[in-house]
Amino acid sequence: MRLTASLIAAPLALSACAEGGVADQLARAQAKDAVNPVIARNFPGVPLEPATDCVINNASASEIVTLARASVTGMTPTDGELVLEIATRPETLTCLIEDGLAPFVT
Known about the structure:
By secondary structure, the chain is an all-alpha fold. The protein has one domain (2-104). 73% of the residues lie in helices and 0% in strands. Helix 1 packs antiparallel against helix 4 (61-73) and helix 2 (22-42) crosses helix 4. The longest helix has 21 residues, at 22-42. The N and C termini lie far apart (44 Å).
């Protein structure tokens, strides 16, 4: 029970840290665990690592915290919609194209 509470509280604590720090890197890694299955399910055949990196790199700090929390507590439909919303932002699409994923961007 204590471990679960710590895991749920961790993303909240991480949000207070400066970008580029260890805590930010941990939150981003945790958020990737939430993003990967959504990308795999909604964009079959897309290379996961570069696509997930583009989504994470174009998410706000609060969105990263939300996704990091979801990777611990379980994804909700709202969390999945957030991933798709970030994935379809112009900046994310540009990232995907620059990373050689243009054939997957329609």
